[in-house]
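testing teh design pipeline on a random one, pls ignore if ur not involved
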């Protein structure tokens, strides 16, 4: 159901749907209805084509949480959320392939180096019906993390979850210290939802955002990079929808979770 809903709500799909409807009305000689669909569709398509409008959609998400400075002196583990690997290509070509969120693995490695005795907990299965029950994502994550130099005995792998809520739900019984403090590594735009779910499930987490997609204003301009613009507007729009749905369904306590005030002696 969620895949079907996103097929109808995706910005690029909406542009295509409106363009097809406008064309259909044009063929039927319904000019007023054709203009109703085609004029705003053309403006939207032109905007996506020439300017990184998606930065305004995704950047508030990316700015919501920052890595604490300095890092805490002690943590009980590092949780890395799945999504940084390209499971379909990895299975297709029989070799580990990183996806657009591959920085999650780099972030996990950075923390693993800083906390050399902390366990590294990967959580992620496949949300795709076609790729479910392949056991591929957990196995792939283990390969990638060990290639990066993290010892296999430090790894805890959870590979049954299909979405962010299940990431934390299925990871909870695997946590080495039930009431401990854990870094959570995920894409910056995804961090607010991840933190909100963790708080709802009473997991004490510290954000370690990676995989930033937007550019600051100094580096933003008219560049006609449609593919690059879609890499911000699509995940940003999807994440805002995800935050709203998770709040409505009680999976988070806040619609747009905010950082907590640091307590004295917490670092």
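output:
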């Amino acid at each position: 159901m969620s895949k079907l809903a996103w097929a109808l709500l995706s910005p690029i799909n909406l542009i295509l749907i409106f363009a097809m409807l406008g064309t259909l009305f044009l063929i039927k000689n319904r000019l007023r209805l054709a203009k109703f669909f085609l004029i705003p569709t053309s403006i939207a398509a032109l905007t996506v084509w020439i300017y990184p409008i998606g930065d305004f959609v995704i950047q508030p998400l990316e700015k919501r949480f920052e890595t604490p400075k300095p890092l805490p002196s002690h943590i009980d583990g590092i949780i890395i959320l799945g999504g940084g690997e390209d499971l379909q290509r990895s299975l297709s070509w029989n070799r580990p392939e990183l996806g657009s969120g591959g920085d999650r693995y780099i972030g996990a490695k950075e923390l693993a180096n800083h906390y050399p005795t902390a366990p590294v907990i990967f959580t992620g299965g496949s949300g795709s019906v076609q790729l479910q029950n392949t056991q591929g994502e957990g196995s792939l994550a283990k390969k990638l993390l060990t290639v990066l130099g993290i010892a296999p005995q430090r790894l805890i792998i959870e590979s049954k979850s299909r979405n962010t809520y299940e990431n934390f739900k299925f990871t909870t019984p695997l946590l080495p210290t039930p009431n401990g403090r854990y870094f959570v590594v995920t894409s910056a735009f995804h961090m607010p939802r991840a933190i909100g779910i963790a708080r709802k499930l009473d997991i004490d987490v510290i954000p370690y955002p990676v995989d930033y997609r937007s550019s600051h204003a100094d580096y933003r301009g008219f560049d006609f990079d449609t593919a690059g613009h879609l890499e911000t507007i699509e995940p940003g729009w999807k994440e805002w929808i995800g935050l709203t749905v998770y709040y409505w369904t009680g999976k988070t306590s806040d619609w747009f979770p905010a950082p907590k005030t640091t307590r004295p002696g917490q670092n």
